[in-house]
Amino acid sequence: MGLFTTYGIREGDIVWAERADTSPQRTAEKRSRAWIEALPEEAKAAFCHFMYKCGTDAYSSLAEFNTIPFEQYSQVKTCDIANYMNHACSPTCLYVDGGERYAGMMVAARDILPGEEITFDYATSEDCDLAPTWDCRCGTADCRGRVNPDDWRSPELQTKYDGHFLPHLVDKLVEFSNENGTPPPSPLRRIHPHQSVCWWPSFDTGGGSPGPDITHTLVDPVRAYAMRHVARGAALEHLNRQAAVLLSHHSLSVQHDASLGKGVWSQEYKYVTTGQPIAKGELVMLLPPNKLQWEDQVEDFNQVVQVASTARGVRLFSASRTPYDIDNFVCHSCEANCYVVIGQDLAMGLVASRAIGAGEAITFDYEETEDDLCDYSAQGGMDRGGFECNCGAERCRGRIWGKIFKSDYKRS
Q: What's the number of CA atoms in the CB half-sphere (13 Å) around residue 205?
Protein backbone atom coordinates (compact mmCIF):
# COMPACT_ATOMS: atom_id res chain seq x y z
CA MET A 1 0.00 0.00 0.00
CA GLY A 2 1.13 3.55 -0.67
CA LEU A 3 0.02 7.18 -0.46
CA PHE A 4 -0.68 9.04 -3.71
CA THR A 5 -1.76 12.55 -4.68
CA THR A 6 -5.01 13.46 -6.37
CA TYR A 7 -3.99 17.02 -7.19
CA GLY A 8 -0.56 18.51 -7.80
CA ILE A 9 1.50 19.84 -4.89
CA ARG A 10 4.10 22.55 -5.41
CA GLU A 11 7.68 22.38 -4.14
CA GLY A 12 7.89 23.65 -0.57
CA ASP A 13 4.20 23.14 0.22
CA ILE A 14 3.36 21.36 3.47
CA VAL A 15 2.34 17.78 2.77
CA TRP A 16 2.19 16.35 6.29
CA ALA A 17 2.17 17.90 9.75
CA GLU A 18 1.55 16.43 13.18
CA ARG A 19 0.55 18.82 15.92
CA ALA A 20 2.42 18.63 19.19
CA ASP A 21 -0.82 18.96 21.18
CA THR A 22 -2.80 16.27 19.35
CA SER A 23 -4.88 14.09 21.67
CA PRO A 24 -3.57 10.62 22.71
CA GLN A 25 -6.40 9.01 20.74
CA ARG A 26 -4.85 10.33 17.54
CA THR A 27 -1.09 10.19 18.28
CA ALA A 28 0.99 7.12 19.02
CA GLU A 29 2.73 6.96 22.38
CA LYS A 30 6.50 7.15 22.05
CA ARG A 31 8.13 3.91 23.17
CA SER A 32 11.67 3.03 24.24
CA ARG A 33 13.78 0.29 22.66
CA ALA A 34 13.61 -1.72 25.87
CA TRP A 35 9.80 -1.63 25.76
CA ILE A 36 9.80 -2.82 22.14
CA GLU A 37 12.32 -5.61 22.81
CA ALA A 38 10.07 -6.91 25.60
CA LEU A 39 7.09 -7.39 23.25
CA PRO A 40 6.02 -10.89 22.16
CA GLU A 41 7.54 -11.64 18.74
CA GLU A 42 4.30 -11.34 16.75
CA ALA A 43 3.38 -8.04 18.45
CA LYS A 44 6.92 -6.74 17.98
CA ALA A 45 6.81 -7.47 14.25
CA ALA A 46 3.49 -5.62 13.92
CA PHE A 47 4.77 -2.65 15.93
CA CYS A 48 8.00 -2.40 13.95
CA HIS A 49 6.21 -2.64 10.61
CA PHE A 50 4.72 0.86 11.07
CA MET A 51 7.45 2.20 13.36
CA TYR A 52 9.71 5.17 12.77
CA LYS A 53 12.33 6.62 15.09
CA CYS A 54 11.54 10.06 16.51
CA GLY A 55 14.21 10.54 19.20
CA THR A 56 17.42 9.17 20.68
CA ASP A 57 15.47 6.40 22.41
CA ALA A 58 11.95 7.15 21.17
CA TYR A 59 9.95 5.17 18.63
CA SER A 60 6.52 5.90 17.24
CA SER A 61 4.12 3.50 15.54
CA LEU A 62 0.30 3.43 15.48
CA ALA A 63 -2.04 5.30 17.82
CA GLU A 64 -4.19 2.16 17.73
CA PHE A 65 -1.45 0.37 19.73
CA ASN A 66 -1.85 2.76 22.67
CA THR A 67 -4.60 0.84 24.46
CA ILE A 68 -5.18 -2.58 22.88
CA PRO A 69 -3.59 -5.80 24.23
CA PHE A 70 -0.42 -7.12 22.58
CA GLU A 71 -2.14 -10.16 21.08
CA GLN A 72 -4.29 -7.85 18.91
CA TYR A 73 -1.38 -5.91 17.38
CA SER A 74 -1.09 -8.12 14.31
CA GLN A 75 -4.77 -7.61 13.41
CA VAL A 76 -4.72 -3.79 13.56
CA LYS A 77 -5.42 -1.76 10.43
CA THR A 78 -4.87 1.95 10.80
CA CYS A 79 -7.14 4.67 9.42
CA ASP A 80 -4.31 7.25 9.49
CA ILE A 81 -3.15 7.39 5.88
CA ALA A 82 0.18 8.98 6.86
CA ASN A 83 1.27 5.52 8.04
CA TYR A 84 1.31 4.32 4.44
CA MET A 85 4.00 6.78 3.34
CA ASN A 86 6.70 4.63 1.78
CA HIS A 87 10.46 4.97 1.29
CA ALA A 88 12.07 6.18 -1.94
CA CYS A 89 15.75 6.83 -2.64
CA SER A 90 14.72 10.00 -4.48
CA PRO A 91 11.76 11.05 -2.33
CA THR A 92 9.00 13.51 -3.04
CA CYS A 93 9.01 14.83 0.57
CA LEU A 94 11.55 16.05 3.12
CA TYR A 95 11.42 16.60 6.87
CA VAL A 96 11.49 20.21 8.10
CA ASP A 97 11.13 21.93 11.45
CA GLY A 98 7.69 23.52 11.80
CA GLY A 99 8.37 24.99 15.24
CA GLU A 100 7.08 24.20 18.71
CA ARG A 101 3.50 23.76 17.51
CA TYR A 102 4.34 20.71 15.41
CA ALA A 103 5.93 17.43 16.45
CA GLY A 104 6.70 16.61 12.82
CA MET A 105 6.38 18.20 9.42
CA MET A 106 7.20 17.38 5.79
CA VAL A 107 7.21 19.55 2.68
CA ALA A 108 7.29 18.68 -1.00
CA ALA A 109 10.91 18.21 -2.16
CA ARG A 110 9.85 19.16 -5.68
CA ASP A 111 6.66 19.72 -7.63
CA ILE A 112 4.57 16.56 -7.22
CA LEU A 113 2.30 15.72 -10.14
CA PRO A 114 -1.22 14.28 -9.79
CA GLY A 115 -1.03 10.53 -9.25
CA GLU A 116 2.55 10.52 -7.94
CA GLU A 117 3.43 8.77 -4.70
CA ILE A 118 4.14 10.63 -1.46
CA THR A 119 7.47 9.27 -0.18
CA PHE A 120 10.44 10.09 2.04
CA ASP A 121 13.90 8.58 2.43
CA TYR A 122 14.08 6.43 5.55
CA ALA A 123 17.74 7.43 5.88
CA THR A 124 16.55 10.78 7.25
CA SER A 125 14.84 9.16 10.25
CA GLU A 126 16.13 5.60 10.86
CA ASP A 127 19.39 4.62 12.54
CA CYS A 128 18.42 1.51 14.50
CA ASP A 129 18.64 -2.19 13.61
CA LEU A 130 15.02 -2.59 14.71
CA ALA A 131 14.37 -1.29 11.21
CA PRO A 132 15.53 -4.21 9.04
CA THR A 133 17.69 -4.17 5.93
CA TRP A 134 15.70 -4.86 2.78
CA ASP A 135 15.87 -4.79 -1.01
CA CYS A 136 14.57 -1.49 -2.39
CA ARG A 137 12.24 -1.42 -5.39
CA CYS A 138 11.43 2.29 -5.38
CA GLY A 139 12.25 2.50 -9.09
CA THR A 140 13.96 5.89 -8.94
CA ALA A 141 17.02 6.60 -11.08
CA ASP A 142 19.32 6.73 -8.04
CA CYS A 143 17.86 3.73 -6.17
CA ARG A 144 20.45 2.38 -3.71
CA GLY A 145 19.27 -1.22 -4.17
CA ARG A 146 19.40 -1.92 -0.43
CA VAL A 147 18.00 0.14 2.44
CA ASN A 148 19.53 -0.27 5.87
CA PRO A 149 19.64 1.69 9.15
CA ASP A 150 23.26 2.78 8.53
CA ASP A 151 22.47 4.70 5.32
CA TRP A 152 22.78 7.99 7.18
CA ARG A 153 26.55 7.38 7.38
CA SER A 154 26.88 7.85 3.61
CA PRO A 155 28.67 11.15 2.84
CA GLU A 156 26.60 11.41 -0.34
CA LEU A 157 23.32 11.18 1.59
CA GLN A 158 24.63 13.53 4.28
CA THR A 159 25.13 16.14 1.58
CA LYS A 160 21.88 15.34 -0.21
CA TYR A 161 19.71 15.65 2.92
CA ASP A 162 21.62 18.25 4.91
CA GLY A 163 19.04 20.21 6.90
CA HIS A 164 16.44 17.45 6.57
CA PHE A 165 17.63 14.81 9.08
CA LEU A 166 15.55 14.40 12.23
CA PRO A 167 17.23 15.83 15.37
CA HIS A 168 18.36 12.50 16.83
CA LEU A 169 20.25 11.81 13.59
CA VAL A 170 21.71 15.32 13.55
CA ASP A 171 23.25 14.50 16.95
CA LYS A 172 24.80 11.34 15.51
CA LEU A 173 26.02 13.23 12.45
CA VAL A 174 27.77 15.74 14.70
CA GLU A 175 29.65 12.87 16.36
CA PHE A 176 30.35 11.34 12.95
CA SER A 177 31.78 14.62 11.60
CA ASN A 178 34.01 15.04 14.66
CA GLU A 179 35.38 11.51 14.25
CA ASN A 180 35.85 11.65 10.48
CA GLY A 181 36.63 15.31 9.83
CA THR A 182 33.62 15.73 7.59
CA PRO A 183 31.62 18.99 7.45
CA PRO A 184 29.26 19.39 10.42
CA PRO A 185 25.56 18.88 9.65
CA SER A 186 22.94 21.62 9.57
CA PRO A 187 20.03 21.36 12.01
CA LEU A 188 16.61 20.45 10.71
CA ARG A 189 15.66 23.30 8.39
CA ARG A 190 13.16 25.65 10.00
CA ILE A 191 10.23 27.01 8.04
CA HIS A 192 7.29 29.11 9.10
CA PRO A 193 4.21 26.89 8.56
CA HIS A 194 2.42 29.68 6.69
CA GLN A 195 5.18 29.96 4.12
CA SER A 196 3.48 27.04 2.41
CA VAL A 197 1.53 28.44 -0.52
CA CYS A 198 -1.37 26.07 0.05
CA TRP A 199 -1.56 26.53 3.81
CA TRP A 200 -4.96 27.52 5.21
CA PRO A 201 -5.98 27.72 8.88
CA SER A 202 -7.42 24.37 9.88
CA PHE A 203 -9.01 23.61 13.21
CA ASP A 204 -9.59 20.42 15.18
CA THR A 205 -13.30 19.82 14.72
CA GLY A 206 -13.41 17.46 17.68
CA GLY A 207 -13.53 20.43 20.03
CA GLY A 208 -11.68 23.62 20.66
CA SER A 209 -12.30 25.20 17.28
CA PRO A 210 -12.38 28.95 17.85
CA GLY A 211 -14.71 29.41 14.91
CA PRO A 212 -15.60 32.85 13.59
CA ASP A 213 -15.34 35.87 15.87
CA ILE A 214 -18.95 36.62 16.83
CA THR A 215 -18.61 39.19 19.61
CA HIS A 216 -21.82 41.18 20.22
CA THR A 217 -23.91 38.70 18.28
CA LEU A 218 -25.75 36.91 21.07
CA VAL A 219 -26.96 40.13 22.69
CA ASP A 220 -28.23 41.52 19.38
CA PRO A 221 -30.97 39.43 17.71
CA VAL A 222 -30.56 41.30 14.42
CA ARG A 223 -26.90 40.41 14.25
CA ALA A 224 -27.60 36.86 15.36
CA TYR A 225 -30.10 36.49 12.50
CA ALA A 226 -27.47 37.59 9.96
CA MET A 227 -25.16 34.79 11.14
CA ARG A 228 -27.69 31.99 11.53
CA HIS A 229 -26.09 29.85 8.78
CA VAL A 230 -22.41 30.71 9.31
CA ALA A 231 -20.06 27.71 8.96
CA ARG A 232 -18.63 26.41 12.22
CA GLY A 233 -16.93 23.23 13.42
CA ALA A 234 -16.87 20.41 10.88
CA ALA A 235 -18.52 22.58 8.21
CA LEU A 236 -15.78 25.20 8.56
CA GLU A 237 -13.09 22.52 8.45
CA HIS A 238 -14.63 21.14 5.26
CA LEU A 239 -14.57 24.59 3.64
CA ASN A 240 -10.90 25.03 4.55
CA ARG A 241 -10.03 21.71 2.95
CA GLN A 242 -11.96 22.63 -0.20
CA ALA A 243 -10.12 25.95 -0.31
CA ALA A 244 -6.75 24.19 -0.11
CA VAL A 245 -7.72 21.79 -2.91
CA LEU A 246 -8.62 24.71 -5.18
CA LEU A 247 -5.27 26.38 -4.57
CA SER A 248 -3.47 23.21 -5.61
CA HIS A 249 -5.84 22.37 -8.46
CA HIS A 250 -5.35 25.76 -10.15
CA SER A 251 -1.69 26.06 -9.06
CA LEU A 252 -2.43 29.45 -7.51
CA SER A 253 0.61 31.30 -6.19
CA VAL A 254 1.59 34.70 -4.84
CA GLN A 255 3.80 36.90 -7.02
CA HIS A 256 5.31 40.24 -6.09
CA ASP A 257 6.55 43.37 -7.80
CA ALA A 258 8.54 45.75 -5.61
CA SER A 259 8.12 48.56 -8.15
CA LEU A 260 4.39 48.68 -7.45
CA GLY A 261 4.81 49.83 -3.84
CA LYS A 262 3.36 48.45 -0.65
CA GLY A 263 0.26 46.28 -0.35
CA VAL A 264 -1.63 44.85 2.60
CA TRP A 265 0.27 43.83 5.72
CA SER A 266 3.01 46.35 4.75
CA GLN A 267 4.64 43.91 2.35
CA GLU A 268 5.83 44.58 -1.17
CA TYR A 269 2.94 44.71 -3.59
CA LYS A 270 1.76 41.17 -4.20
CA TYR A 271 -0.85 39.52 -6.35
CA VAL A 272 -2.21 36.02 -7.04
CA THR A 273 -1.71 34.23 -10.34
CA THR A 274 -2.96 30.92 -11.66
CA GLY A 275 -0.60 28.29 -13.03
CA GLN A 276 -3.38 26.52 -14.94
CA PRO A 277 -6.00 27.71 -17.45
CA ILE A 278 -9.40 28.21 -15.82
CA ALA A 279 -12.66 27.93 -17.76
CA LYS A 280 -15.44 30.50 -17.57
CA GLY A 281 -17.84 29.68 -14.73
CA GLU A 282 -15.31 27.61 -12.79
CA LEU A 283 -14.79 28.16 -9.05
CA VAL A 284 -11.34 29.74 -8.72
CA MET A 285 -10.96 30.41 -4.98
CA LEU A 286 -12.88 29.87 -1.77
CA LEU A 287 -12.48 32.13 1.26
CA PRO A 288 -13.89 30.33 4.33
CA PRO A 289 -15.25 32.52 7.19
CA ASN A 290 -12.41 31.69 9.58
CA LYS A 291 -12.55 35.12 11.18
CA LEU A 292 -15.65 37.32 11.12
CA GLN A 293 -15.86 40.81 12.58
CA TRP A 294 -18.58 43.41 12.83
CA GLU A 295 -17.58 46.84 11.52
CA ASP A 296 -17.13 48.26 15.03
CA GLN A 297 -14.51 45.53 15.63
CA VAL A 298 -12.47 46.15 12.47
CA GLU A 299 -9.16 47.90 13.05
CA ASP A 300 -8.08 48.16 9.41
CA PHE A 301 -10.63 48.10 6.61
CA ASN A 302 -7.84 47.45 4.09
CA GLN A 303 -7.53 43.91 5.48
CA VAL A 304 -11.16 42.73 5.41
CA VAL A 305 -13.89 41.89 2.91
CA GLN A 306 -17.57 42.64 3.50
CA VAL A 307 -19.67 39.48 3.42
CA ALA A 308 -23.04 40.59 4.87
CA SER A 309 -25.02 43.40 6.48
CA THR A 310 -27.94 43.38 8.92
CA ALA A 311 -31.40 44.81 8.37
CA ARG A 312 -30.18 47.88 10.26
CA GLY A 313 -27.23 48.29 7.91
CA VAL A 314 -24.53 47.02 10.27
CA ARG A 315 -21.87 45.35 8.15
CA LEU A 316 -20.11 42.05 8.73
CA PHE A 317 -16.56 41.47 7.45
CA SER A 318 -14.34 38.45 6.83
CA ALA A 319 -10.63 38.60 7.59
CA SER A 320 -7.62 36.33 7.31
CA ARG A 321 -6.19 34.88 10.50
CA THR A 322 -2.60 35.36 9.36
CA PRO A 323 -0.76 37.67 6.95
CA TYR A 324 0.29 34.62 4.93
CA ASP A 325 -3.15 33.52 3.72
CA ILE A 326 -3.23 33.77 -0.05
CA ASP A 327 -6.54 35.68 -0.13
CA ASN A 328 -4.74 38.73 1.29
CA PHE A 329 -3.18 39.26 -2.12
CA VAL A 330 -6.13 39.02 -4.54
CA CYS A 331 -6.23 42.40 -6.28
CA HIS A 332 -8.99 44.68 -7.58
CA SER A 333 -9.72 45.35 -11.24
CA CYS A 334 -12.51 47.42 -12.78
CA GLU A 335 -12.68 44.73 -15.49
CA ALA A 336 -12.07 41.74 -13.24
CA ASN A 337 -11.78 38.14 -14.43
CA CYS A 338 -13.76 36.84 -11.42
CA TYR A 339 -17.06 37.70 -9.78
CA VAL A 340 -18.01 37.15 -6.16
CA VAL A 341 -20.54 34.71 -4.74
CA ILE A 342 -21.23 34.70 -0.99
CA GLY A 343 -23.07 31.69 0.40
CA GLN A 344 -25.44 31.48 3.35
CA ASP A 345 -22.53 29.98 5.31
CA LEU A 346 -20.69 33.30 4.64
CA ALA A 347 -17.97 31.60 2.60
CA MET A 348 -16.93 33.80 -0.31
CA GLY A 349 -16.23 32.22 -3.68
CA LEU A 350 -14.49 33.74 -6.69
CA VAL A 351 -15.93 32.43 -9.96
CA ALA A 352 -14.28 32.97 -13.35
CA SER A 353 -16.31 35.51 -15.35
CA ARG A 354 -14.35 34.57 -18.48
CA ALA A 355 -11.63 32.13 -19.48
CA ILE A 356 -8.45 32.85 -17.51
CA GLY A 357 -5.06 31.95 -18.95
CA ALA A 358 -2.17 30.33 -17.10
CA GLY A 359 0.01 32.98 -15.49
CA GLU A 360 -2.79 35.57 -15.36
CA ALA A 361 -3.50 37.52 -12.17
CA ILE A 362 -6.74 36.67 -10.33
CA THR A 363 -8.87 39.77 -9.74
CA PHE A 364 -12.33 40.82 -8.60
CA ASP A 365 -14.13 44.16 -8.37
CA TYR A 366 -13.94 45.37 -4.77
CA GLU A 367 -17.15 47.33 -5.26
CA GLU A 368 -19.03 44.05 -5.65
CA THR A 369 -18.58 43.39 -1.94
CA GLU A 370 -17.96 46.75 -0.22
CA ASP A 371 -20.89 49.08 0.41
CA ASP A 372 -18.89 52.06 1.64
CA LEU A 373 -15.13 52.55 1.53
CA CYS A 374 -15.09 56.27 2.36
CA ASP A 375 -17.51 56.82 5.28
CA TYR A 376 -15.13 58.84 7.43
CA SER A 377 -17.82 60.22 9.72
CA ALA A 378 -19.08 56.83 10.91
CA GLN A 379 -15.62 55.78 12.06
CA GLY A 380 -14.25 59.07 13.33
CA GLY A 381 -12.08 59.67 10.28
CA MET A 382 -10.88 56.05 9.96
CA ASP A 383 -9.65 55.00 6.54
CA ARG A 384 -12.24 52.53 5.26
CA GLY A 385 -10.14 51.30 2.35
CA GLY A 386 -11.08 53.61 -0.52
CA PHE A 387 -8.34 54.20 -3.08
CA GLU A 388 -7.39 55.70 -6.42
CA CYS A 389 -7.42 52.85 -8.93
CA ASN A 390 -4.56 52.11 -11.31
CA CYS A 391 -5.78 48.77 -12.63
CA GLY A 392 -5.16 49.84 -16.23
CA ALA A 393 -8.50 48.54 -17.50
CA GLU A 394 -10.06 50.34 -20.46
CA ARG A 395 -13.07 51.23 -18.31
CA CYS A 396 -11.18 51.92 -15.08
CA ARG A 397 -13.45 53.98 -12.82
CA GLY A 398 -10.55 55.84 -11.24
CA ARG A 399 -11.85 55.93 -7.66
CA ILE A 400 -12.96 52.87 -5.71
CA TRP A 401 -15.20 54.08 -2.88
CA GLY A 402 -17.82 51.32 -2.53
CA LYS A 403 -20.94 50.18 -4.34
CA ILE A 404 -23.13 53.03 -3.10
CA PHE A 405 -20.77 55.47 -4.84
CA LYS A 406 -20.02 53.27 -7.86
CA SER A 407 -20.04 55.05 -11.19
CA ASP A 408 -19.54 53.70 -14.66
CA TYR A 409 -17.53 56.58 -16.06
CA LYS A 410 -14.30 55.89 -17.91
CA ARG A 411 -11.30 57.40 -16.18
CA SER A 412 -10.03 60.46 -18.06
A: 13
